[in-house]
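Session log. Operator J.P. requested a structure for one protein chain; no other inputs attached. Running the standard single-chain path with token output.
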Amino acid sequence: MTEFTAPIFEQTISWQKRIGYSWKHPVLLVLTIFTTMIAGANMQGYSTPWDSNAGVTAGIAFMVPLLVILGCHELGHYLVSRHYGVHASLPYFIPAPPFITFIGTFGAVISMQSRVPTRKALLEIGIAGPIASYALSIFAIILGYSLIPSSDFVQMRITEIHHLMGIDAHPDAGMQLSMGTSVVFSVLSRLFGHAVPMNEIYHFPLLFAGWIGLLVTSLNLLPAGQLDGGHVLYALIGKLHQKVGFGILALMLLLGFLSTNWLVWAILVFFIARRPHPPVTYSGGRLENRQIRLAWFALFMLVTTFIPIPFSL
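Structure written below.
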């Protein structure tokens, strides 16, 4: 996700401001490493990552792919922003207590502190992050399934973790939290022939990190406000995009009848959609075929990553 803030007017700036660096970046990153490692260890049956070497390994196995996916999503925005001369910050990771978010983070964000020069630039900046997280999420899922030798291994691993968690050692026992599936996740699962039950997916760090990456990609591609999909839509239709944003909000409220997750996200989108999108410096000119193809690809990513019921109990 990218967010516009006040422009920078300094004529001579330090190297930290030149690259968008702040002391907050390493502090937030370290805190997010800490919280996501705890979350990863909890998913494998360890109360903290420091219970044992296995606990540390479990924490790292989840933390690394998750932060790489989230970080590269924001770096995609950052690099394309810099390419077009837009002043942007490095990614800010947002830590969160694992008992609140389950995964130990609220994600990451960059701050754009100067105007985007053209609609072409805005569209490419907006879509760069989702392309990065989409590709890396698919890679994580493929790698995760490649490391699973058989369906018997899946059941054995689930039973082992249930035992560590003090749950009845049966493959169908455990936390009754089930993750929904998207088109791309379902296709990849079928290719390998030993799909992991969706209520146990969080026991497999690479698969779960990839699943989260696809969900983040989907949510960011919603065409509303200053979400990535909102940037793409604004580049296509200008100020009319705000009306579409409220239409998306209404759709999310309807989806709330399927899953209360959407009601929570609808509140967030309401505050995002009600803010007018900052204008680009030069709004004239037609988009080129390259940008039109990217816009269609954004729609393709949204359709293939969309999860009607992300979580269910």
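Operator note: The chain has one domain: 2-221.
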